[in-house]
Amino acid sequence: FRLALIQLHVSAVKSDNLQRACGLVREASAKGAKVVALPECFNSPYGTQYFKDYAEKIPGESTQKLSEVARECSIYLIGGRSIPEEDGGKLYNTCTVFGPDGAMLAKHRKVHLFDINIPGKIQFKESETLSAGNSFSMFDTPYCKVGLGICYDIRFAEMAQVYGQKGCQLLIYPGAFNLTTGPAHWELLQRGRAVDNQVYVAAVSPARDEKASYVAWGHSTVVNPWGEVIAKAGAEETVIYTDIDLKKLAEIRQQIPILSQKRCDLYGIEMKK
């Protein structure tokens, strides 16, 4: 099946972001994409100073538009992180997924909050305004089972391993790495998660905006279970496409059967809830 990643240029105007995102979703569908993913924070500038002002409840204005365009195009739509989700007085970094009938199939709240401090380069603390999610998020399609993470979640190998154990063959991470961590780790982490678990990994970033307070790395990428980069964007707004070949995945797992060779008598990873 064909996968499309939409590397959107995000402005400060929510309605413009949403309109352009839906237009690019329609374009991707017209080119044969059956699963389409939007980037983290596609409907709001990325920064702790923006999260409260741009927050919505789910369902809400943005998720309603995503539901409508998924139904119109008869696709599976991974809604990046539309905007921060407000629920019970707390804010979450949330990704929603809609099926071809417009129904919401999954809602993933970012499990690992991006609190880092690299002296002289970047300091960021999502926990100043956001709360962490507490669950894994998977959904089924006629093609394969898909596991979700958001940005910083990709650094935690245990999460991807659980998804692999639960039968996911594609992991999708809407993310917004920056100009410090992006060139160092963006592709490396995707290739690592793909090889470790013999799955396809797709990570979809906003386009780079040098004038923004937080500058995203861009370079949305798809990696196959052999660890090969099979599609990659530059820094500008674009849509990239790739065909997910589940036959190739099965062949790789047969050739190097690590999933059946794990020493579960010595170690293990478990999903607690």
UniProtKB/TrEMBL annotation:
One of its GO terms (biological process) is glutamine metabolic process. InterPro entries: C-N_Hydrolase (IPR003010), C-N_Hydrolase_sf (IPR036526), Nit1/2_C-N_Hydrolase (IPR045254). Belongs to the carbon-nitrogen hydrolase superfamily. NIT1/NIT2 family. It catalyses: 2-oxoglutaramate + H2O = 2-oxoglutarate + NH4(+); 2-oxosuccinamate + H2O = oxaloacetate + NH4(+). This is omega-amidase. Residues 1-246 form the CN hydrolase domain. GO terms for molecular function: omega-amidase activity. Keywords: Hydrolase. GO terms for cellular component: mitochondrion. Its EC number is 3.5.1.3. Coiled coil: none annotated.
